[in-house]
Design goal:
With 155 residues, the protein is α+β, with helices and mostly antiparallel strands. It is built from 5 helices and 6 strands, in the order ββαααβαββαβ.
């Protein structure tokens, strides 16, 4: 399956895709465990993973957190109109705020959509006030998540 990465075609076969699915389910799997599942040796799996890392297919590894248990129970999506500032510039400036988990440039009446995680709704209000005072947001609309049914990485 050819995938595009920075203008380059990255060729992935069925084994590569199966390795990616395994890593998406559990990034702590050993190369031996993955090899047993996909029918390769551990060194062969390691080589394929390194190749996908170098090609930018695998960007990073992570963990799935229970945000309520670590004091961040409030998830909200915030629609932002940046005004005169470009979306790329604003997005780079938003990256310094730890409350902002994701930032996406979008088409339509808004410029960006942010995914935020805070301890309280008031903490989100304080973040939005900072963004407005620093000229990063001309207008915002917040959408609070009541319950997360599921989250996943798609492959």
């Amino acid at each position: 399956m050819p995938l595009s990465h920075l203008g380059q075609q990255v060729r992935l076969d069925e084994i590569d895709l199966n390795i990616l699915k395994l890593l998406a389910q559990d990034a702590k799997l050993s190369f031996n465990e993955m090899g047993d599942t996909v029918g390769l040796t551990a060194p062969a799996v390691h080589g394929r993973v390194r190749k996908m890392e170098k090609a930018g297919v695998i960007k990073r590894y992570g963990v799935e957190l229970d945000y309520a248990r670590i004091g961040l129970p409030v998830t909200a999506f915030v629609r932002i109109r940046t005004g005169r500032m470009g979306t790329k510039e604003a997005g780079e400036l938003f990256s310094v705020f730890p409350e902002i988990e994701e930032c996406h440039s979008v088409a339509g009446e808004d410029d960006l959509i942010l995914k935020t995680r805070t301890s309280t709704p008031m903490e989100l209000q304080q973040l939005l006030d900072k963004l407005r005072m620093e000229g990063l947001s001309e207008r915002s609309v917040s959408i609070f998540v009541l319950q997360t049914i599921f989250e996943r990485s798609r492959l």
